[in-house]
Amino acid sequence: MGLLGLLRRKPFERAGFELYTASVAAARAPSLFGAIGVPDTLEGRFDAIALHVALLVHRLRHDPDPRGRDLAQAVFDAMFADMDLNLREMGVGDMSIGRRVKTMWEAFHGRARAYEEAMGAAGMAESAPLAAPLEAALARNIWRGEPPEGAPALLAARARRIAAALSAREIGDLAAGRLDLLEFQT
């Protein structure tokens, strides 16, 4: 690969940014911070984004179409390019950006794995015993173990609705960057 190969865009770069942007828009829904009680802090906002992106990446990684894995990587790349940019805009020094992004990367992977395991254990069921693993994972990660009454159940129900909607989306729409998760604001 020559120099032009290094400068060429990745095939799903634009779609990855568009899908990531849709996830961030859903993660900024006022109902998350109001009715559901996600902490309106830097950490709470990161956790809301991580949840939405984790659901999307899970959907893409498990699609039988080979584009799914490339799209998942493009969304992941978009997320961490955005995190890097946001840290710089907040005035974090260049010398510590890499360390902070690595910490965020590790936090995202831990949360994504916990949500995937919890949803796998509970399936998509809404019954109390089966919903408990996802609610526990959300309570631990979003509220650090001290959630408002009923908040994990509300957020878990939202996560299951988003996961179901994502699984119903055609890979062609996702590969074109078409996704609207704002319908899950309530």
SS class:
mainly alpha
Radius of gyration: 17 Å
* Shape, principal axes of CA atoms: globular
Order of helices and strands: HHHHHHHHH
Mean pLDDT: 87
End-to-end Cα distance: 48 Å
* Sheet with most strands: none
* β-strand amount: under 5%
Question: How helical, in percent, are the residues?
Answer: over 70%
For the secondary structure, the number of strands is 0
As residue ranges, the low-confidence spans are 124-130
Helical element count?
A: 9
Task: Write structural notes for this entry.
By secondary structure, this protein is mainly α. It has helices at about 5, 15-25, 30-35, 40-60, 65-90, 95-120, 130-140, 150-170, 170-175. The N and C termini lie far apart (about 50 Å). The model is unreliable at about 125-130 (pLDDT under 50).
SSE diagram, text form:
Elements: H1 3-7, H2 13-27, H3 30-33, H4 42-61, H5 67-89, H6 94-122, H7 128-142, H8 151-168, H9 171-175
Summarize the structure.
This protein is mostly helical and 186 residues long.
